[in-house]
Design brief:
By secondary structure, this protein is an alpha+beta fold. It has five helices and seven strands.
Length: about 150
Amino acid sequence: AYLPKLLPWLIRFWRAGAAKHYETSLATQAGMMKLAEAEWMGLLDRSGTRPMLREDGSLEFYESEAEFRASLPGWAERQRFGIGFRHVEGQEMAALQPGLSPRFVKGTFVPGWKTVADPKLLGKAVWAYAERLGARFEHARVERVVSGANGAT
């Protein structure tokens, strides 16, 4: 019963995923991620929650040379958009992740990756900051969302 209502959105979603839109989508997402990072860093600084952020990078591991090679096109795309990384193996990989199982033969280290140990605590702390600035939580029922010149209402 809901499919007829959903169908126009599904068709737009399917068309947006077409190969001819790939480059634009990729560039748009990369731009949004840079903006989001800058805005989050500012918010974390203003709210005093920056210590909750971990800036120790991330590692992706591969169990075979074939699995690693299959990942390379994705890493080439990241590189085009300025995402820093380096492929690691052997002693360097062991130094980055002590005690790693020997089944992993290669890895990719992304030094700029950021994580949060406890997203719930961060969310609560950011909300407390917003409340101090006058924000309030309001329960309401949304009947519809309309797109307009000034955004959605």
